[in-house]
Amino acid sequence: MAPRRTGQRSHHGRPAETLRDRRGPSGGSRPLSQKRPNPDHRRGSKRAPAPRRRVYSRDLHPLRPHFTHLSALAAITLLGALLRLWNLDIAQYRGDDVTVSGLALDIVRSGAFPTGVLSSVGIANGPTVPFVLAPPTLISSNHEWLSICVAILNIAMIPATYALARDLFGQRVALLAALLTAVNPWLVIYGRRLWLNAFIGPAAILFLWAFALACRSGRARWWALTGLAVSASSQIHLSCIPNLVAFASVLTFHRAFSLRKIAIGLACAAFLLIPWVVLSLLPDLSQFDWKSTRTIVPELTLGSLERATIVVTGVAYQSIAGQAGQMLDSTAAPFSIIDGVARVAAVAGWLFLGYVAWRDRRTAPARAAVALAMVITVATPTLLLLRPVQAGQLPYLYPYYFINLIPPLLIGIAAVSEPLARLVARSLPAAVSERSSHLVTHSGTALLAIIAGAQLLLAVPFFLTNDEFWPLGGYGVPWTYTDDLVRVASATARSSDSAILIGGDEDDSEQASVTARLLKRDFDLVRLFDSRDGIIFRDDDRPLVEVTTNEEHPQTQLLRHDFAARQIYEQVLPGAGWTRRVFEIMPGDFQRWASEHLSQATDRSVGGGIVYERLGVLPTGQPFASPHLGILWRLDSDPAEPFLTDIVWLDGDRVVTTDRHVAYPAAWWQRGDWSQTRMLNVFPVPAEVQLTERTAVEFTSRGVISGKLVGTAARIQLTAPAGGS
Question: Of 260-269, 333-342, 711-720, which gets the smallest average pLDDT?
């Protein structure tokens, strides 16, 4: 479309102007009466400067949205807010949440300057999120308050998506993109947590919106904002690094935009990137074992394409909370069919964005530049999803690591719906009436409404069945339960100046480690141990707060039976029946129990600081349904490394069987702790062992790291305990 002549009336009732008059030769805004020569035009040349290229068509994209559009946007935003704020206290809370919120708390309390956030890959993510969480943490470190702030940030993503899509493709596409963003299950679930992934979507939209504004206005301040936004987004998660490539792609449009102002944006991006790159990224890359990285899927398959487009489907709720499928199975018809349509639309939308980037490269370079940036944003991580790799401790590249793809894909889906519908309408026979053709043209909107409706419907069982899965699967234990447990343990320890010892297993949804890390924020003497093989306790004059997280572990069974009077708190998690308890143990309680039940005193030193004090067999009965071996021992000096203990069961000189146990659980133990610590191991007697007068046990301990023998092997003859349990 040729630019209007100056003085011609536009549909806004104002004299229209050419893009050159409106933007000025440098790309910035200036009054029409202000005449300045084109600085890019050679001095003395008689050829008039070429007019700047057109950015957006005003006929397609009115500057002011209609009241109806704003009302629809408000309703869509309210819907998205309801999904993200509903029952926020049952949102996931795992190790990642503790890490991120803990770093923000360190910034506020001690002025720490984190250079990265640990990742499973072995290469640290950037430090953007802790710094973003620091201001609200300054007001309060309460998890509920911080979760609301994160949810609001994700809610703001909805109107931001609308604004970006409106500038690119118009009002209808903008409303559809906002609707898809509001109900997308992946954005809903992972936008309710204090982890890195909750910030990926909002940061992606901020970058694309600032980039579009910079391309449209050409002003230096918007290019600077774009540089800061892309740098911050790329330092949220490693999967956001393609945003840097997307921003750099604007250089392909160097004739349409001022290189000097683009350089300002690149400089701002580099300014924020340098600390992370120099202090964290480069050191991690230098130490990374590239040989450990391998491709999981050897060739491209249909399953690979499914992984690449799963972030636009409705399976997210059921993927982390399987009970949701009891009411509505997202893997069955009609949802599986709708998801298939969404996947096809995602691919078509991505191709359409590429087409727009090519089609408008001369007539509307700003729109073309933004479309190309979105294409690149999707393309790079998609290649990783097509060929997943295994690196470090990360066994698989899970879909939620690629939330950065969702905003461009949803905008692409909304944008391609109308062209596809028009294409179908044009292929109709001539006999079809104009009314029918009009209905077909709007069928794309109806199709996207069906996709959004299905994803909204799948949210219902997820929120209604939240008492049926805690803490099963990968969801973990919701914050509200962990908060109650931490408050009780904290109040008890504070009132009696107690040490806090937490038993558990890392496989139990990180219950023990998350609880310990939260308590560690306010108490120095918090220790974590593996309670599968018994109890660790201190023998000084301080009371103990013992926290249990697994009812099957010997620690819990022993405390429940012989120390029931010391229990001060019991928490039964809904649905799963998982129980966590808090006991307040007085000084000397465990030693008295050992002297009563483990009558055979050995007090035998075997070297390496290991001293076995008491040993005996706990007969069948309460608390154990089978015979168990009880061992009370200590370390007279700090061990060089953690070690595992092999227990060899002997019948005379004949070896019956050998068990390996974590007799020395070293998590969080510090040097000097062992001088006031005792280990009370309780091991089940193997079924093949027949307890007789000839039964003996031999203990052999070896270092976990070096494999070297710790001390010497200790052989002890067993006798019956003096008292029953």
Answer: 711-720
